[in-house]
Amino acid sequence: MDGLGELSDDRALLGRTSTAERVADILRTRIAEGFFPPGARLSEESIGGALGVSRNTLREAFRLLTHERLLVHRLNRGVFVRVLAVDDVVDIYRTRRLVECAVVQGLGAPPYPVAGLAAAVAEGERAARAADWKGVSTANIHFHRELVALAGSARTDELMRGVLAELRLAFHIVDDPRGLHEPYLLRNREILDALRAGERDRAQQLLDRYLDDSRSRITEAYAKAVDDPEP
Question: What is the pLDDT of residue 16?
Answer without folding.
Answer: 45
